Amino acid sequence: MVRGKTNPARAAEYRTSARSQPKAPRPGDKQEADNSKGLRPGTRVRLRAPDPLLDLTSDTGTVLEPSEWDYYYLVRLDEPARHRHVPGRIEETRVICEAIENLEVLEPN
């Protein structure tokens, strides 16, 4: 291996965290079983446990597409959220990247 280069197969190990590991579906848990198949664009979802640095005005949104990371999706929030990722600086955002285990699929109206 060339010094200073990262092996692409190992790079994925560094981008994931314990939070990103999918939970195994429990017997009788329909929601988890549905999530294991993946989410389609346009699916309505609710955030189960938002990031503590994110101030939500709405905890619901729509899946846009899968993220580049396994088990993560880009979600457009119904209302903008305020993100405090740098001390003293707040940004407004409508699109976030969330782990599938943190998304609850909402039933169509």
Can you give a write-up of this model?
- The longest helix is centred in the first third of the chain and has 8 residues, at 8-15.
- The protein has two helices and six strands; from the N terminus they run H-H-E-E-E-E-E-E.
- Strands 1, 2, 3, 4, 5 and 6 form a six-stranded antiparallel β-sheet that branches.
- Strand 4 (72-86) and strand 5 form a beta hairpin.
- It has 109 residues and is mainly beta.
- It has helices at 8-15, 30-35; strands at residues 44-47, 54-55, 60-66, 72-86, 89-99, 103-105.
Helix content percent band: 10-25%
The main pleated sheet reads as:
6 strands, antiparallel
What's the rounded overall pLDDT mean?
Answer: 75
Counting helices, strands and paired strands, the structural category is mainly beta
How large is the radius of gyration?
A: 16 Å
Per DSSP, the total helix count is: 2
Instruction: State the total count of DSSP E strands.
Output: 6
Q: Topology as H/E string? A: HHEEEEEE
Which assembly state applies to the chains in this document?
Answer: single chain
**Distance between the amino and carboxyl termini:** 54 Å
Poorly predicted regions: 1-36
Task: Estimate the global geometry from the Cα principal axes.
Answer: globular
